[in-house]
Design a protein that fits this description.
CATH architecture of chain B: Up-down Bundle
Mean pLDDT of chain C: 80
Number of strands of chain B: 0
Number of helices of chain B: 9
Largest interface: B-C, 44 and 29 residues
Strand content of chain C: under 5%
Structural class of chain B: mainly alpha
Shape of chain B: globular
Oligomer: heterotrimer
Helix content of chain B: over 70%
Number of strands of chain C: 0
Order of helices and strands of chain C: H
CATH topology of chain B: Four Helix Bundle (Hemerythrin (Met), subunit A)
Mean pLDDT of chain B: 83
Low-confidence stretches of chain C: 1-5
Shape of chain C: rod-shaped
Chains: A mainly alpha (224), B mainly alpha (252), C mainly alpha (56)
CATH class of chain B: Mainly Alpha
Largest sheet of chain B: none
Largest sheet of chain C: none
Order of helices and strands of chain B: HHHHHHHHH
Radius of gyration of chain C: 25 Å
Structural class of chain C: mainly alpha
Distance between the termini of chain B: 36 Å
Number of helices of chain C: 1
Distance between the termini of chain C: 83 Å
């Protein structure tokens, strides 16, 4: 159990920090709401058309909102030397990285997932499709946090990595977007969303053991 | 120690590698260029027109080898990046870093020629065809690797960061390609697939294609050695052998 | 199977492809060659400057 003491402490620390800065943590949610509100304004209020694109819009919005919060995931800790402490602490670096990624999902991905029904109803998505969207986001946003967090670790040493980080993360997010929005699309057209959801689940199963390792390697490169 | 490991150890020494590259570079360049001219002339003038696509299929002699190279170079970049990360071999870092712009160029050629082929065949420059889309994403992955390596000042750190991103990208490429095919069958009616009559290919058309595939690999070897030489010179600029090289005017 | 019947000459597209390919290869050749020459020239410049400084 002693293996998990430090990662648990890190998780608690990160979550406490996120809670104290909750005004800041709400920003991705507000961003997602505002972007979603832009689509009816840009495309017109016709309900059928909006419901048709709602799943895709929700996914793209959630991806972008995640991207905004990823930029600072490791930067502060790199600048104040905490990452160097991680390296010399003798603790398992992949587990520490995994705790950080989990904290990011709990603070960003989970609230965005829970807000998805709201986004969906703004665009008039039918209820069964909204449920599919909820399930797809629950399976997909952890992958976004983990893969995005790995890229954020690579760019941690750069003072301003925003656009570059988007360039690194977004191509890697194509499968999540395709299966996530595909599940909603399948429900809308009367097909079973299960194949797409299962693909998302297997993506999560693949990312869960691999990304902490990759993220640890990225931290090693950035902190050296 | 067998001959191969011995060779590999020797190549770890920058002056030996530089001399090796200097010796083989022109061979790769000229054999690649001559073979390409030969294969393209053959493909342009001495093969019959395709009964389905007419003359436009001759674009494939450039398009297909370039698309192959786009994927092949990414694999080389990721594998040498893996070697660089695990065994800390400088040469592998250089190979990984030098491959990125070459692979991006071939991928861009594949995209440009693909859309030029699409205009007479599909009636439009761009369709969200599965292969075109995944090639586009491959190009974005290349841009990510290049952008990351350019953004980091320290050359060795940049090489290692880019190598890690290339490995993550390589793991993702099959998933991306599968997801794009899946997406394509979800959205696309079969209209485009009807025209994909090029799966079986006549031997008379196949030969120039295979020769072009060899020619592009030879050119890649030339470009890789050339770029690697520049990086070696930059990294070793304080060393004696580089001084001697720069000091002797006949060497350029 | 529907044959491709878009009634337009195909050769401009074939020609454009070959031109793009050739242009990018030439561009790549020129960049690699000039990069090498530039690095060597910079080095030589630095060497002559140090030599001159040592002479004075």
């Amino acid at each position: 159990m002693s293996l998990l003491v430090a990662p648990t402490a890190l998780l608690q620390h990160d979550l406490t920090l996120a809670w104290r800065r909750r005004a800041e943590a709400v920003n991705p949610l507000l961003f997602a709401l505002m972007v979603t509100a832009l689509f009816p304004l840009a495309l017109g209020p016709e309900a059928n058309q909006l419901a048709r694109i709602a799943g895709g819009v929700a996914w793209v919005t959630v991806l972008l909102a995640n991207l905004l919060s990823l930029d600072v995931l490791f930067r502060g800790d790199l600048e104040d030397g905490s990452l160097d402490q991680w390296l010399v602490s003798g603790q398992s670096l992949p587990l520490l990285a995994g705790a950080r990624l989990l904290a990011h999902w709990l603070a960003t991905g989970l609230p965005l997932t829970l807000a998805a029904p709201l986004l969906a109803s703004m665009l008039g998505l039918p209820e069964d499709a909204a449920l599919t969207l909820l399930a797809a986001l629950a399976l997909g946003t952890p992958v976004v946090s983990m893969v995005g967090g790995t890229c954020a670790a690579l760019t941690a040493a750069m003072p301003r990595a925003g656009i570059l980080l988007a360039l690194l993360v977004l191509p890697l997010m194509v499968p999540v977007l395709v299966f996530g929005a595909g599940a909603v699309e399948a429900t809308l057209t009367g097909l079973s969303p299960l194949p797409a959801l299962l693909w998302l689940a297997s993506g999560l199963a693949l990312a869960l053991p691999l990304t902490p390792l990759a993220c640890a390697a990225a931290i090693r490169i950035s902190a050296q | 120690m067998n001959a191969l490991t011995l060779w590999f150890h020797r190549m770890g020494s920058p002056p030996t590698f530089y001399a090796f590259a200097e010796r083989w570079r022109p061979w790769f360049l000229w054999s690649g260029l001559l073979l390409a001219v030969f294969a393209l002339t053959w493909g342009l003038f001495f093969t019959p027109a395709d009964y389905l696509q007419g003359e436009s299929y001759r674009i494939l002699y450039i398009h297909v080898p370039s698309a192959w190279m786009g994927q092949f170079v990414f694999a080389v970049m990721a594998v040498s990046g893996f070697v660089a990360l695990v065994w800390r071999i400088k040469l592998a870092e250089i190979v990984s870093l030098a491959s990125a712009p070459i692979g991006a160029t071939f991928t861009a050629v594949a995209l440009a020629t693909g859309s030029l082929w699409g205009r007479p065949t599909w009636g439009t420059y761009w369709v969200w065809d599965a292969r075109l889309t995944s090639t586009l994403i491959l190009l974005f992955l290349y841009f990510g690797v290049i952008g990351l390596s350019r953004a980091i000042e320290d050359r060795r750190k940049a090489a290692r960061a880019a190598a890690l991103l290339a490995i993550v990208g390589l793991v993702n490429i099959p998933i991306i390609q599968y997801s794009v095919y899946w997406w394509n069958t979800l959205h696309q009616p079969s209209s485009v697939k009807l025209l994909r009559g090029d799966t079986t290919i006549d031997p008379s058309m196949l030969w120039p294609l295979l020769l072009m595939a060899v020619a592009t690999k030879l050119y890649y070897a030339y470009s890789l050695l050339s770029r690697a030489q520049v990086m070696v010179l930059e990294q070793e600029s304080g060393k004696d052998w580089v001084r001697r090289l720069a000091g002797a005017p006949a060497n350029d | 199977m529907e044959p491709a019947t878009f009634s337009m000459p195909h050769w401009p597209f074939v020609a454009a492809s070959y031109v793009i390919f050739a242009a990018l290869i030439v561009a790549d050749l020129v960049t690699t060659a000039t990069a090498r020459r530039r690095v060597l020239r910079d080095l030589r410049g630095r060497l002559t400057r140090t030599a001159r400084r040592e002479a004075t």
